[in-house]
Structures are given as structure tokens and as C-alpha cells.
Fold each of these.
Amino acid sequence: MDRAIAWIVLALVTAVPAVLLAVTEVTSCADAAPGMGPSWCTSGPVLGVTGSWVAGTVAAAVVVVAVVQVVGAVRSVPAAEG
């Protein structure tokens, strides 16, 4: 059962930061001097679009592997006789 707990912890430690990094946005603005052109702002994910996809894909893969390992660990525990 310790294996199952370890896989659950690994899944959480991987998935939670990946989700937080994927949904957190950063905004950057530049004000132009008067008469020198327009001011502009940009915003996007902290890791960038590509980085967010990579982090999400890796986290999803780790969660899938963890679920398979937890199911295998739970099934391998013998049922209590009674």
C-alpha cells in the first residue's frame, strides 16, 4: 500500500504545479513617451504557450502512469480472510 501512496503523492506533486503554471498569466506593458507612438501590453501563460502544453502533457502522462501503478498496487494486496 505504501507504493500506492507514493504514486498518488507523485501524481499530485506533478499535476498541481503544472496546472497552476498553465493557468497563471503574466502581463507586460510598455508606455510610450507622449507623441512617440502607441503604448502596448501583452499577456500569456507564465511558461509560454509551448511550455504550458509540454508541462500539461508531461503531467498528464505522469498521472496516467500513477493511476495504472496505484491500480496494480491495490489489486496485488491480498483480501482479508474472514
Amino acid sequence: MDEMGSSPSASTMNSERKHKTSSSWLSRLKKNCLTFAVSCRESFSYVKAFFIGQAKKIRAKNEKEATAADLDTAKMQVEAADAAEKTKNRLNKSL
């Protein structure tokens, strides 16, 4: 009689364990996909900043404007990295 009473609870525990495993696996997959998307956006922002900076450098009429274009490029890249880091931290806290 004891075996019959413990059998359903064992199967219930097994199904709960499988559910937890699958949900944690899906959670990790979702987190990794979102992190990858943020990294792709950051990379795109870096490339965008590079080409905008190069265009400004080409159009520069003097050394001062060329230096300002370099600084703007660096500033845009830092802003992209900061935004990506902030988003990744928010994802880590929420998931």
C-alpha cells in the first residue's frame, strides 16, 4: 500500500523536475538570444559611428574639423557601448 501511495508523488516530482529543467533551459535560451541581439545592435552602432566619422573627416576643411570628427566618432562609440551595457544589465536583472 505504501508503494502505491508514493508512486503518484514520485511521478509528480518527476514532471515538476522536467518542467523546471525545460523552463530554465528556455529562460537561458531567451536571455542568450536577447543578449546576442543587443551585441548586434552595439556592433551596428560602432560601424555607423565609424562611417559617420569618416564622412565628417573627408568633408573637414581643416585639422580642427578633422579632430572634432575623430572625437565625435569616439563619443558615439562610447555611447553605443554604454547603452549596450545598460541594456544587458537590465536583462540580467529581469531574467
